[in-house]
């Protein structure tokens, strides 16, 4: 008779055989098996009477006492086969409990469905095959965009993100821009640079980042992101890839840039984002000369930008709507805005206005095609009248003022609304504008007085 034994039981059989043949003492066997000598004698008696099968577990090979009835299993599989054949085990279990009042564990149902051929486990499924996709036919037909987070300055500066725009038809790098984060404002600035240099493409091809797509399908929430609104107003299609393999051209470009661009900046001695963004056009031209390929057809699908500079600035702003109160006021980002109560504006009570929040931090309020004049009242800035303090109470008053100042410093000057756009890009834009006017405004240490006397 064939006896199925575990490794533990086989080891026990060997030790007991050595004890029975006088090669090992019972005390030593008890230490090896971690049992008492009395139990060793009990096992020896069982081995002598019933043989090796007495060492195997008596329930081995028998069905469990807690198993489901065969009729119950057949009934469950019949219902699943007839009504839920394309359901996953978890989903099918929910419906069995909800509609049929049948209770069974999830793992048991999964094993039953696998044995019955109703479910294929992921480990047995064939891997998905991602076949290469042919390039588009013309330049400007499809632009792949992505953000690559990397230690671009090799520890000489903080880690940052490189926004990459690459043409699908030719593999040309159309635009590169370094930014501290991968935010909507950063993509807006990079896209505005792209449009000013290359014009409008047919479509942008991106991933499913929340900048490009509202990722709340399970909550049945639909809408449009700020970046999606910008492209919609410009007449540019935005396509989100279903996987990273689908936009493999820009993914491979990221790997190439992480190799070549890092070393080029090391040789050029570039250590800051500002210097890198100023030097990137030279790198793009050199990289395209080496690696870009001609398009299948010579037709250029890029379109001319007809919007004016002011129209583009308005489009590339963060836009939200607010409803005016009866007193022509509304709140945005913890600041109360007061519309100028002119004769024309008094008719706008309870009307909706559009707020344009520009990357440089400026705010504009638009109703229709007209921009409204306004004043602001910051609720977080408290202005107090000077207090008259008696001389004997001056020390206590100063102590109280110091405590309030410490609390103010701990809480910082203001706490912005979490729904408002991030301001890191705005600070960088302001710095770049000042640098374009005069580099001394951003780096006063570089100023050198002229030695010429007039």
Characterise the protein shown here.
It contains 13 helices and twelve strands. With 454 residues, it is α+β, with helices and mostly antiparallel strands. It has a five-stranded mixed sheet, with helices on both faces. A four-stranded antiparallel sheet has the order 6-9-10-11, with no helix packed on it. A three-stranded antiparallel sheet has the order 7-8-12, with no helix packed on it. A hairpin with a 5-residue loop joins strand 9 and strand 10. It is elongated. The termini are far apart. The model is unreliable at 389-393 (pLDDT under 50). This is Transposase. Residues 406-435 are annotated as: Disordered. Residues 128-310 form the Integrase catalytic domain. Residues 415-428 have a biased composition (Basic residues).
- Number of extended strands: 12
Largest sheet: 5 strands, mixed
Q: Going across the major beta sheet, what is the strand order?
A: 3-2-1-4-5
Count of DSSP-assigned helices = 13
Low-confidence stretches: 389-393
N/C terminus separation: 117 Å
What's the helical proportion of residues?
Answer: 25-40%
Residues in β-strands, percent: 5-15%
Whole-number mean pLDDT: 83
């Amino acid at each position: 008779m064939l006896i199925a034994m575990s490794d533990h039981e086989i080891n026990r059989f060997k030790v007991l055989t050595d004890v029975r043949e006088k090669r090992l003492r019972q005390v030593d066997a008890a230490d090896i098996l971690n049992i008492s000598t009395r139990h060793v004698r009990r096992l020896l008696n069982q081995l002598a009477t019933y043989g090796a099968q007495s060492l195997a577990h008596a329930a081995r090979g028998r069905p469990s006492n807690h198993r489901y009835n065969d009729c119950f299993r057949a009934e469950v599989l019949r219902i699943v086969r007839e009504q839920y054949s394309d359901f996953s085990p978890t989903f099918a279990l929910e419906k069995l409990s909800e509609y049929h009042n049948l209770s069974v564990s999830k793992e048991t149902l999964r094993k039953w469905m696998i044995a019955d051929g109703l479910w294929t486990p992921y480990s047995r499924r064939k891997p998905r095959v991602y076949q290469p996709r042919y390039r588009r036919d013309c330049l400007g037909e499809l632009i792949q965009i992505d953000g690559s987070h990397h230690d671009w300055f090799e520890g000489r500066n903080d880690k940052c993100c490189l926004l990459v725009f690459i043409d699908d038809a030719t593999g040309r790098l159309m635009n590169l821009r370094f930014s501290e984060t991968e935010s909507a404002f950063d993509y807006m600035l990079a896209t505005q640079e792209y449009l000013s240099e290359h014009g409008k493409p047919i479509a942008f091809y991106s991933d499913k980042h929340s900048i490009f797509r509202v990722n709340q399908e399970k909550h049945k929430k639909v809408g449009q992101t700020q970046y999606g609104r910008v492209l919609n107003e410009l007449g540019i299609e935005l396509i989100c890839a279903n996987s990273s393999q689908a936009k493999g051209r820009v993914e491979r470009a990221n790997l190439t840039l992480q190799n070549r661009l890092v070393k080029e900046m090391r040789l050029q001695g570039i250590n800051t984002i500002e210097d890198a963004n100023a030097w990137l056009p030279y790198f793009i031209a050199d990289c395209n000369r080496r690696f870009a390929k001609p398009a299948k057809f010579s037709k250029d699908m890029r379109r001319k930008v007809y919007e004016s500079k002011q129209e583009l600035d308005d489009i590339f702003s963060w836009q939200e709507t607010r409803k005016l109160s009866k007193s022509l006021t509304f709140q945005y980002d913890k600041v109360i805005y007061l519309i100028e109560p002119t004769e024309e504006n008094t008719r706008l009570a309870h009307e909706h206005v559009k707020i344009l929040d520009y990357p440089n931090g400026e705010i504009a309020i638009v109703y229709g095609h007209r921009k409204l004049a306004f004043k602001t009242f910051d609720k977080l800035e408290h202005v107090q009248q000077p207090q008259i303090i008696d001389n004997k109470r001056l020390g206590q008053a100063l102590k109280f003022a110091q405590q309030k100042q410490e609390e103010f410093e701990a809480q910082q000057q203001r706490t912005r609304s979490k729904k408002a756009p991030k301001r890191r890009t705005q600070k960088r834009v302001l710095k770049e504008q000042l640098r374009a006017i005069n580099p001394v405004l951003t780096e006063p240490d570089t100023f050198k007085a002229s030695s010429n006397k007039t």
